[in-house]
Specification:
- The chain is globular.
- It is built from eight helices and 17 strands.
- The protein is of the alpha/beta class.
- Helix 7 packs across helix 8.
- A nine-stranded mixed sheet has the order 2-1-17-16-14-3-12-13-15.
- It has two domains: about 240 residues, QueA-like; about 80 residues, Thrombin, subunit H (Beta Barrel).
């Protein structure tokens, strides 16, 4: 397939720059993937749209403030690091995007702002502007603590404003507990504790898994043919209890509803071996595009995604490219809000 087949025109004013005024107040476009029928609802309607015995699977990863602002040493010019992936070196070494890249060559040092003694040195170059960067604190305190104290929320590049203190709460799901993502599993941002309680009262089983979302979620598809694209590997873990709930639903013909593309990838990656979700940790670079055979997920709650993106391709694989693009055209006509802080779509 050509990547151009996943393109569409989106008015820039539909790209949400702020979350909904209240969590849980977003609109919801419902797509029946069997008939293609569309219905306009609200996220608060979820207890009416799901039924007893459905298993709703959420991603409980927690976003950490991975964007660090500082100054170069020597010289004092401004510098920025976006932490992408911690490297298994035994010291606090990360793969990071740095700016300005042309001035941050191996050996360059950075002092970060914010009242903590966090320092860094560029160790090596990598592809697409990435660097290997070593971090330390002059007072010997843990690097992760310093990052959490002074880091900025890594809002997506299409949100054209600086992060604010309230983003630390709103760019985080209410069930986030496992630190490790540089981007939020955004479909989960719509759920509130009250809505989760209402779903449980309806008889919906809520299950948590973890997939730490990497910067690759924003990575543009640079090839012309879909099949030539590759995703960065991301870490996931599924508890024995979560696997048991999902596998029981599969055995009994009950629906497994994934909240977000990240949850979908974790579940489908964990079931590649024998059509059963395997408990335990793992990593996956699974790229889901049309033609993929889903073994676990039978329903999907997701946001509206970028044109030509791997996330849009996953949704198209689940519901059909034409039906998804038709739904997107309706969403645009009806002025739904798009992307991370935007409205949601339920496919079942």
């Amino acid at each position: 397939m050509n990547v151009s087949e996943f393109d569409f025109e989106l008015p820039s004013d539909l790209i949400a720059q702020e979350p909904a005024a209240e969590r849980g107040a977003s609109r919801l476009l419902c797509l029946d993937r069997g008939s293609g029928a569309l219905a306009q609802c609200w996220i608060s309607d979820l207890p009416l749209l799901l039924g007893p015995g459905d298993v709703l699977v959420v991603n409980n990863t927690r976003v950490f403030p991975a964007r660090l602002l500082g100054r170069r040493r020597p010289g004092g010019g401004r510098a920025e690091c976006l932490l992408i992936k911690k490297l298994d070196t035994g010291i606090d070494t990360w793969e990071a995007l740095v700016h300005p890249g042309q001035r941050l060559r191996p050996g360059a040092q950075i002092v970060f702002e914010g009242g903590r003694s966090l320092r860094a040195e560029v160790m090596a170059r990598r592809f697409f502007g990435r660097r290997v960067v070593r971090f330390w604190t002059e007072d010997g305190s843990p690097v992760d603590e310093a990052v959490d104290a002074i880091g900025h929320v890594p809002l997506p590049p299409y949100i054209k404003r600086p992060d604010r203190p309230q983003d630390r709460e709103r760019y985080q799901t209410v069930f986030a507990c496992e630190r490790g993502s540089v981007a939020a599993p955004t479909a989960g941002l719509h759920l509130t504790l009250e809505l989760i309680a209402a779903l449980r009262a309806r008889g919906v089983v809520i299950v948590e898994v973890t997939l730490h979302v990497g910067y690759g979620t924003f990575q543009p598809v640079r090839v012309e043919r879909v099949e030539a694209h590759r995703l960065d590997s991301e870490f996931y873990t599924i508890s024995g209890e979560a696997a048991a709930h999902v596998n029981a639903a599969l055995d009994e013909g009950r629906r497994v509803m994934a909240v977000g593309t990240t949850t979908t990838r974790a579940l489908e990656a964990a079931a590649r071996r024998d059509h059963r979700v395997q408990a335990g940790p793992g990593s996956t670079d699974l790229f889901i595009y049309p033609g993929f055979q889903f073994r676990v997920v039978s329903g999907l709650l997701t946001n509206f995604h970028l044109p030509r993106s791997s996330l849009l391709m996953l949704v198209a694989a689940f519901a059909g490219r034409e039906r998804v693009l038709d739904a997107y055209r309706m969403a645009i006509r009806s002025r739904y809000r798009f992307y991370s802080y935007g409205d949601a779509m339920l496919i079942r």
